[in-house]
Amino acid sequence: MPKAGIIYNDVKPIACQTAEALRGKLELRGWEVCLATGVGGILGYSRPESPVCHTPIEQLNPPGFDHQMQLAIVLGGDGTVLSAFRQIAPYNIPLLTVNTGHMGFLTETYLNQLPQALEAVLEGNYEVEERTMLTVQVWREATVLWEALCLNEMVIHREPLTSMCHFEVQIGRHAPVDIAADGVIVSTPTGSTAYSLSAGGPVVTPDVPVLQLVPICPHSLASRALVFANTEQVTIFPATPNRMVMVVDGNGGCYILPDDQVKILKSPYAARFIRLRPPEFFHLLREKLGWGLPHIAKPASVELP
Questions:
Q1: Could you tell me the CA-to-CA distances from 88 to 7, 64, 82, 240, 270 in Å, in that order?
Q2: CA 112, 114, 116, 120: dihedral to nearest 10 degrees?
Q3: Residue 279: closest CA among 114, 154, 97, 93
Q4: Are residues 139 and 255 both part of a single domain?
Q5: In which domain, by residue range, is 165 found?
Q6: Taking the model in full, what pTM does it have?
Q7: Percent of the chain, pLDDT > 70?
Q8: 242: burial class by Cβ within 10 Å (0-12, 13-18, 19+)?
Q9: Same domain assignment for residues 95 and 61
Q10: Residue 38 sits in a domain of what CATH number?
C-alpha cells in the first residue's frame, strides 16, 4: 500500500478542512495517509536561565512519517512549509506545497488548483527540485545548546535598546573577519529572497551551490554581502560583551552569550520540492516580488497652446 503524509496549519480552518477531505480522497484510492500539524516543526526559544531548549534535528519527525513514505502534502503558507521541511527532510520525503496563506513564495500551487495537482502527482507527472538546507548549532564550551535545520536563513542580532555589536566571523580555513553591525545573516539561495534581500543582499538562483553572509546595518562602507561556496563551514564568535539573539527561519532560536559559538554548515538533508512543471525562478520573482517587469513609456510631451 502506498503511503502519503499531510502536514497542515491547524490555525487555519480551510487548511484543516482540506486536510480531512484530502485524506479521504487518498484513502479511497488505496493510500495509507498520516496527518500532522506544522506545530511539530516550530522551533523553541531558549531563555537565559534555561539555555538548552531544543529537540535534535532527527527527532522532529511526526508519528508515522518515515522512509517508506512516497510523498507528503503541506497545506499552509511559507511558515508551514518551513516547519514541514524541518520535520521530514531527514527522511528524504518530497513535498507538494499548497498555498493557503498570503505570499506563498515557497508554495507550488493554490487550493483551487489542488484537484488537478493531486491527479498529476498520483500519476507521477512531476519532478523533484532539491534545495540546500543548513545545520545551525549553538555551542557553549563542548556542549550543543541548540540546533535546527534551516531552509532560509540564520540571523544573529542585537537586543533592543543595546548598542551596535561586533561579530568575528570565520569562513572555512580563511582568516576571521570582524563585522560591526546590528546583526549578521547567513542565508541559503532559497533565503536570498527573504530577510537577506531586505538587508541589501543579492538574489541567488536556487541551483547555485553557495551561501551568503549579509551584515545588517553595518557601521562601515566596506562591510557588504559576501557570497561563498556552501562547502565552507561558518563559525561566528560574538565579539561583544552584550547578550544577543539568534533566530532561524524567522521562527525560533536562543540567546547568544559572549563565550558562545554559532556553527553553520550545509546540512546532509535537502528540502525536496515537488514541481508540477519545470522550475522557472524568474517568473516567480516577477509574480511575487515584481522583479523585471517592463517599464511603461512616458507619454510624449504635448505643447500647450
A1: 10, 11, 10, 37, 10
A2: 160
A3: 97
A4: yes
A5: 133-268
A6: 0.89
A7: 92
A8: middle
A9: yes
A10: 3.40.50.10330
Three-class SS of residue 65?
coil
Say whether both 52 and 66 belong to one domain: yes
- 13-24 pLDDT, tens digit per residue, is 999 999 999 999
In a shared domain, residues 47 and 62: yes
Buried-state track 12-40, b at ≥16 Cβ within 10 A, e below 16: beebbebbeebbeebeeeebebbbbbbeb
> Is 207 considered catalytic here?
no
Per-residue cell: 118: 493531486
Model confidence pLDDT, tens digit, residues 58-88: 888 899 999 999 999 999 999 999 999 999 9
> Which one is catalytic: 78, 182, 207, 260?
78
118 and 208 housed in the same domain = no
Q: Nearest to residue 15, comparing CAs of 36, 33, 41?
A: 36
Whether the Cβ atoms of residue 235 and residue 170 lie closer than 8 Å to each other? yes
